[in-house]
Amino acid sequence: xxxxxxxxAGPAGCAAAIALRRAGREVVLLERSAAPRxxxxxxxxxxxxxxxxxxxxxxxxxxxxxxxxxxxIGHGARESTAALPFDAWGLARRRLDGALQSAAGPALxxxxxxxxxxxxxxxxxxxxxxGEVSARxxxxxxxxxxxxxxxxxxxxxxxxxxxxxxxxxxxxVALLPCxxxxxxxxxxxxxxxNLCAALRQAPGDLLxxxxxxxxxxxxxxxxxxxxxxxxxxxxxxxxxxRHAGEGPPGxxxxxxxxxxxxxxxxxxxxxxxxxxxxxxxxxxxxxxAAEFGAAWRRRHARPVLLAGLGAxxxxxxxxxFAAAAPLLGPAFARATRL
Length: 338
Ligand SMILES: Cc1cc2nc3c(=O)[nH]c(=O)nc-3n(C[C@H](O)[C@H](O)[C@H](O)COP(=O)(O)OP(=O)(O)OC[C@H]3O[C@@H](n4cnc5c(N)ncnc54)[C@H](O)[C@@H]3O)c2cc1C
Hints:
Largest sheet: 9 strands, mixed
Shape: globular
GO molecular function: oxidoreductase activity
InterPro entries: FAD/NAD-bd_sf, FAD/NAD-binding_dom, Geranylgeranyl_reductase
Bound molecules: flavin-adenine dinucleotide
CATH topology of the domain at 2-42 and 95-150 and 239-335: FAD/NAD(P)-binding domain
Organism: Belnapia rosea
Order of helices and strands: EHEEHEEHEEEEEEEEHHEEEHHH
CATH superfamily of the domain at 2-42 and 95-150 and 239-335: FAD/NAD(P)-binding domain
Strand content: 25-35%
Number of helices: 8
Pfam families: Pyr_redox_2
Protein name: Dehydrogenase (Flavoprotein)
Distance between the termini: 35 Å
């Protein structure tokens, strides 16, 4: 019987586990992957995520985070560039998740997939690939993947990610609307670039689909060379979904299992890290899961709704988004922060 079992060692689960361990609580952090690996993600983060990482003792610069200065937006034959209204960075997820998982220390149990969770005798019984685990409290942090019995709504959105070489992107993040969605492109580790797309259907050829969306994309991706055999993909991303906040006693939902903020107009990693810290705080203060869920739902309402609005403008009217970015960008960025 563990005191607290955290399911999933992404940013949300690691933040919760690290904070609980530091406070002297007995935590197990169950992670299905055997080693840190890439995750479908634009790799972009700003001051909210940086502040949460600092609280957790993680220094992104020491991990090779790349400072980003500009926002570039392609819209048909035209393009716009604006200074980013806040400090921002890019960092490969394998590195970030690896650092967070190391910081979780002995709490982390790798290569353990949780297959189901059942309330039992005032606690929880988890069925895992390595046998059963009992815990008084459970923190659900499986991110992009639902745990059986705890579904999220169906969604046509899919996420795709590909690391590339030979992309002249420099210190900028480029937003590239294309048929069926949009992509983000920014520098990544070892002089390469990360291309990450949110699309409503699987493209035949990811690079060709994004190149066809704008002259900026065609130019940036002209000589691009994939560094992976195929893109990483995740299906059914329920953008804009927010959990109702209620839930069974002792069962805390965090990260993408509590709310899914639209990508590139909102920052999922910041939300994930901060929800992990908030859940740890709630558990340490003895607050029940339903109370934590309702409070967290209130806190992320504005960022998630505004990011959804921004994503719709970016897809439907990229020229308008580009024109408004230098003017409204700082206020929008502030309003989408927690
Ligand atoms: C296309 C796209 C682009 C994005 N771009 C950005 C961006 O640029 N910036 C940003 O801030 N956010 C971005 N996001 C969002 C961001 O990736 C997520 O919000 C963030 O990763 C959520 O963190 P998490 O810890 O909740 O989940 P995850 O990062 O998904 O981590 C979940 C962890 O749980 C593990 N796990 C899953 N199921 C089980 C199980 N049954 N048993 C044990 N372990 C399990 C997984 O292996 C994983 O390690 C993007 C998302 C998408 C889809």
